[in-house]
Amino acid sequence: MTSSSIRALCHSLLLILALGCPPLHAQPLDFATWLAQLRAEASSLGISEPTLADAFASVTEPLPRVVELDQSQPEFAQTFSGYITNRLSDARIERGRRLLVEHKELFARIQREYGVQPHYLVAFWALESNFGDFTGGFSVINALATLAYDPRRADFFRQEFLTALRIIDEGHIAAADMTGSWAGAMGQCQFMPSTFNAYAVDGDGDGHINIWNSLPDIFASAANYLARIGWVDDERWGREVVLPANFDFALSGTSNKLTVSEWNDMGITRANGSALGAAAIEGSIIVPAGANGPAFLVYNNFHTIMEWNQSTFYAISVGHLADRFMGEDPILHMPAIEERALTRAEVEELQTLLNNLGFDAGTPDGNAGSLTRKAVREFQLRYQLPADGYVSFEMLSAMRSKIQ
Questions:
Q1: pLDDT for res 10
Q2: What's the CA dihedral at 340, 346, 347, 353 to 10 degrees?
Q3: For residue 114, what are the CA distances in angstroms to 218, 229, 324?
Q4: Cα–Cα distance between 136 and 165 in angstroms, integer?
Q5: How many CB atoms lie under 10 A from the CB of residue 279?
């Protein structure tokens, strides 16, 4: 074995340890050999040699920073009030209002063509890239190659990599200019290559789709994506509401839908105390900060936002930021005191306690997903607590008391 081969083997072994990969038979030892196979696959799919030469020229080894970011986990679970505060600053709201005016003719055309209201497009723009200021400084090709080499999600990122090559091959962007996030999300609307391939459109008519620099392409692509996945152009995303004192929190959650009229008949009002009124549109009650935080009645467009990003906090932020651009009030019923955030270790402890008490929270992993929330709700129902399914320090304390 040559000295260069030994170095390559040692590098691969170190990367395997860093990535937490499975046994060696499941992971190619030599990144260069693996990369050559990937290039051959791309060539067999019809990607041109000039594109392959440009794209693969800079891919020599996995990017350590991408590996680090992919593995990093936040120490604390983010609270709703913290999330909203960090994303809905007065400066961001004022800037969004100015940009709506500055580009009003473009937004009007996009709305006519795709049926998406401008203030929602600007809200996505703000949250995805701070109006284009922060689109990510990673080479998408290098980042996706790094992630495709990791066997944990190899198939997904391999397809994203190949799709990125096709986008380059079609002449939309040069390989060197295809920049994005560490996970491969691209441009001012942060599309993954597969999303670009399925939904991005040429909004300025120049024959190319440039979601990095062309505002017509950026907004037309975002609007086309939303329209294609179910956006309703004459409806809002939702609104803040006030729940009656006797509200049954078992009715909360996106799986429970009733008409506005039915929610109104239960005594639910708008945030300012006025009646919801009578309407046949269906909505769901969600309580992102639990029974002691604000409540929202959300409609179809909220679910469409969740298709873009499967985070309740994100979806509320998009909708509420869009409202603020139009002069509506801040959220009126935020908790008076900032909630005590749970650490990942505490979430894992809560999941363990739930399992020990007979509520299936799955394998404890420190992530409060849907299975954990379902188990919390079942715990709350058994012990006659508000069944909001909310994972909190208060709930952890209640579970600790049941174990003692």
A1: 42
A2: -120
A3: 13, 12, 22
A4: 19
A5: 14
Q: Are strands 179-180 and 138-139 parallel, antiparallel or unpaired?
A: antiparallel
Distance CA 283, CA 240 (A): 12
Cα 110 from chain centroid? 24
Amino acid at residue number 38: L
Quick one: pLDDT at residue 62?
A: 94
Among the listed residues 335, 295, 337, 330, the one whose alpha carbon sits nearest the alpha carbon of residue 90: 330
**Measured distance CA(271)–CA(295) in Å, rounded:** 9
From start to end of 141-247, where are the E strands?
179-180, 238-242
Spatial contact of 206 and 232, defined as CB atoms under 8 Å apart: no
Q: Please say whether the beta carbons of 312 and 288 come within 8 A.
A: yes
Query: Could you give the CA distance from residue 208 to residue 210 in angstroms, rounded to a whole number?
Result: 6
Domains of the chain: 3-72+136-186 (1.10.8.350), 344-403 (1.10.101)
| pLDDT (mean) for 339-367 | 94
Q: Would you state the torsion angle of the CA atoms of residues 112, 113, 118, 120, taken in this order, to the nearest 10 degrees?
A: 130
pLDDT of 29 over the 70 cut: no
What is this structure's pTM? 0.89
**Are 253 and 389 in contact, with CB atoms under 8 Å apart?**
yes
Residue 185 backbone dihedrals phi, psi, to 5 degrees = -75, 135
Give pLDDT tens digits for 67-98.
Answer: 999 988 778 788 999 999 999 999 999 999 99
- Cα 229 to Cα 175: distance, rounded to the nearest angstrom: 29
Segment 29-36 shows an average pLDDT of 90
> What is the C-alpha separation between 225 and 227, in angstroms, rounded?
6
Count how many residues are written for the chain: 404
